[in-house]
């Protein structure tokens, strides 16, 4: 167990497969903060499949701070603003922290980071997203819709980066391989970015069989499962069949090798799913079904028709116009 030797640092392996070493005292405080997770009962290296290494380091710092019994809620909030989050230049990092705080039910941290993000000016947000690629920007929007109450400043900051024509999107994604394109669909679909989804579809359909085959052969099993799942949902039959054939041709030993770099807690899951792919079955609906978009779509303000036929731009997600082609 991870607490067998109180004098030894504990190794944690995060979802980005990076190892974080935690000193015994901090490890104890961290587990007192999240007792339901029972991380201290795991055998090392302790797997944290929902936590990035950068986020874990933040959580460890936070656990030490809140262990101070003299730390009032007002003092904690000031510390979060002035020290804990001060200097954080990437909005994606803050969104990652919000998601994990929600998952671990750390209410004070969750509320504090959300307030910190919502207090940012449009100019500050623009600076924080200046180097993000298209997929990262979409993930920020998706997280904002789910977690934030105040989204107007964020949308104003990213609007010019995301409101593109299908042709502009096509140019932006021209160099993406099949996994990159699938990941774009995965995040754009729940946000109703139809122009981007159409641009991705067109690019996938424009790839030759040889090119698709080469790109598929460069993927690990986790990526192949993702490609199959989205291809099935998007009715990309040729791509779906190519993934099935590629997995079918692999031996059991080769499949094991394809998941060797994944967290052990996921390896058996991916191997089980691979058995469905090998025979092309769709019996396991819960594995391959596309997630419901209802929650996000209900929160996305869209352009509404005014009485004179013009559009009122009340929201920060404009409704996509139907393409002519």
From TrEMBL:
It comes from the Eukaryota. This is BTB domain-containing protein. Pathway: Protein modification; protein ubiquitination. InterPro entries: SKP1/BTB/POZ_sf. Residues 298-325 are annotated as: Disordered. Residues 308-319 have a biased composition (Basic and acidic residues). One of its GO terms (biological process) is protein ubiquitination.
